[in-house]
């Protein structure tokens, strides 16, 4: 939200609860007990002519439908959904009862995130994995895709493991780092162009200028 929060962009958020306040956002906490749920908040937001709507969670069909409708009418809609992976998000929303055609037109991308613990830089220990360990990693990754990464097995290949020191309280880890699964990347590998990419091509063709592409298509990168 911080990345897209600019003075010329009107952003409304519905959260339960509002955990982090941010200057410039219009943040609202939902109260289901009095009938002000995510769906009610979104209906109210649409009357305020927003540029961006952020909904804390797509919990039911009504909220999901309003989100799709808002997206189809030119609003950028951001939300979360509890699933195990990015592709499962599609199945979950379709199972809710979302119209597949409208959903296909409105979807820009899906990102699934997991937080992994980060090794302590001061004490992490390098080691050479066994051939069996390497083969298992390649198989889990997807052998064909792993070959594209060009990481052949050799005695110089290094992985790292935790050890523990005073800096990390002898846990071997400090903080956490995100592991991300982006479903749009799959479509792009098949030749899909984003709004931004298409705009850049049109700029090179002399059909528009790059400032217009940045102004109109930034949210679709």
Amino- and carboxy-terminal Cα gap: 15 Å
Q: Considering the protein shown, what is the CATH homologous superfamily of the largest domain?
A: P-loop containing nucleotide triphosphate hydrolases
The structure class reads: alpha/beta
Q: In CATH terms, what is the fold-level topology of the largest domain? A: Rossmann fold
CATH class of the largest domain: Alpha Beta
Describe what this molecule looks like in 3D.
The structure is a single chain. With 221 residues, the protein is α/β, with parallel strands linked by helices. The protein has two domains: 105 residues, P-loop containing nucleotide triphosphate hydrolases (Rossmann fold, 3-Layer(aba) Sandwich); 101 residues, 3-Layer(aba) Sandwich (Rossmann fold). It is built from nine helices and eight strands. The protein has a four-stranded parallel sheet with strand order 2-1-3-4, with helices on one face. Strands 5-8 form a two-stranded antiparallel ribbon. It has a two-stranded antiparallel sheet with strand order 6-7. Helix 1 runs parallel beside helix 2, helix 2 crosses helix 4 and helix 8 runs antiparallel to helix 9. The chain is globular, with a radius of gyration of 22 Å. It starts with 10 loop residues before the first strand and ends with a helix.
